Fold this sequence. Notes:
By secondary structure, this protein is mainly α.
Amino acid sequence: MSRLPGWLHGLGGALQRMGERLDARRAAAERDDGLDAPYPDSGRDAGEGAGAAPEPAAGAKGAAAGAAGARAAGAAPGAVPPPPSYAPAVAARPDPAAAIPWGMRVAAEAGWRLLVLAGTLWVLMRVVSAVQLVVLAFVAALLITALLQPTVTRLRRMGMPRGLATAITAVSGFVLMGLVGWFVVWQVMDNIDNVSDRVRDGIDELKRWLLDSPFHVTEQQINDIAQSLSDYIGANTEQLTSAGLQGVTVVAEAVTGILLAMFCTLFLLYDGKKVWQWMLKLVPAQARPGVAGAGPRAWRTLTAYVRGTVLVALIDAVFIGVGIYFLGVPLAVPLGVFIFLFSFIPLVGAVVSGALAVVVALVTNGVFTALMVLVVVLAVQQIEGHVLQPFILGRAVRVHPLAVVLAVASGGLIAGIGGAVVAVPLVAVTNTVVGYLRAYSQEQALRTLPEPHGATAYEIAPTPAPGAAPPREGDPRREE
């Protein structure tokens, strides 16, 4: 029994030491939780916490020392410690836009804008193709109006009312065009029998020339070619019939287009100014002054082009027709009219009409007459290209030959003969409009610049005119 109090005393001391160790571990765990918390309590004082807690053990003292070292190094509580000095440096990732080269970025910006423009043009072409008859009729009305508008203006100046002047001009113009068409048809029908006989004789003469030529062509080969043509025509009778039906459809569309063009011409001659003012309302307000200034200049260009082209075509038709007539080629008058009409297609029309005249002379009058007709056609076309067009059309509507060829080819692919006729005046008008808008934008930019003053005025001052007094000594303009 004497040992029982000593054993109890030892057990009590062991329990006390165990409790102290548990308290020290609990205090160390609380300190660790305070360091790892993302939002530590700012009002809590480290000294108060240390005073309230029991004396920590050795492990707790090491953790507290590590936290104190982190605070001494400048790291905020809860922050990630910096990497050690021996760790490799990692480069920061740049902005993706800055990583792309400048040239590629410019190309991309221009590329998507070009795609938008190409899509817009494609949609516009689809719309034009869908209403091709209406567009061609309206454009033809614009060309006829540009040709007849000076006559209306002249009659108005003489004191005639606008309606009467428009009616007289339009009726006279339409009657004149109808008479020209009737004259061509009458000449063709009147000379068709003579031409058929001439063509038959020309084919026989061409056959004899081939037999006597150094090409060693035999009569059997010529007969085989003729039989092949006959068989082809017989085998494709249905296609020829369908082509004839399509021709009837084309004639109906042509009549509809002519009536629509006449109707549009009347209104453009009578109310052309009001139509233009209404179209200006569709333009944005900021661009309206420039478009309003470009419109009259474009109209003057179109008027000059149409009147000059008509005059040049008339001269070509008269001179070539007279030359064909004196050479004894039949259908001289219809050929002259065809030359006049084809002259509205620059470059291509002259070649086609001249080739038609040479072929007719070849099959009707022989090789020598065809060569003489070729000489006449080439001489007149050279005079047209080097004398008539520069003098009559002038520089305002002059278009580079490459642009003419490309425009005619593009217009022909898009809208046939009508597109080829319209392409060149459209290019001429576009050239005038673009030139004016460029000059207008430059003028507006100069107006917005501040007024020069001081030394800046001498720096941007224009060069003095020849013969003007030179700057005096000490003038800043003498300094380089």
